């Protein structure tokens, strides 16, 4: 059954030249990009699509400011993708790419510089699309 998912390619993926690796992973998984958008995030948008940043953290609050700074420093690319088990496949792709390209990083670096974001479940997908791709709500 075909379904939708979303990928946010972060600026560190561009800096490291890994955008094509991410897109190649989508093709390999049989997923098709149906919407592409370049956006410059600000703290308000970041808080909306990642509400966990408003929750207390056992690691303190400093890393959250670094997340905001890193995600708003350059434009990011948001992709809406479609295909069989798209949500599960994008989640697995995210995990794989982070293991391969972000190994041995300390916790803060893994959170801030981790190449891409994908929703973990349908609820998070809905929230992410509403915040980052509201123009496609009637499309999906």
Report on the structure:
The protein is an alpha+beta fold and about 140 residues long. The protein has helices at about 10-15, 20-30, 45-50, 60-70, 85-100, 105-110, 120-130, and strands at about 1-10, 30-40, 75-85, 115. Strands 2-3-1-4 form a four-stranded antiparallel sheet, sandwiched between helices. The mean pLDDT is about 90.
Give a nutshell description of this structure:
The chain is α+β, with helices and mostly antiparallel strands and 140 residues long.
Essential attributes:
single chain; 140 residues; alpha+beta; Alpha-Beta Plaits; four-stranded antiparallel beta sheet; globular
Write the layout of secondary structure elements.
Elements: E1 2-9, H1 11-15, H2 19-28, E2 32-39, H3 43-49, H4 62-72, E3 76-84, H5 86-101, H6 107-112, E4 116-117, H7 122-132
Antiparallel strand pairs: 1-3, 1-4, 2-3
The largest sheet has its strands arranged as 2-3-1-4
Task: Please tally the helical runs, counting DSSP H or I stretches of 4 or more residues.
Answer: 7
The CATH architecture comes to 2-Layer Sandwich
Please give the radius of gyration in angstroms.
14 Å
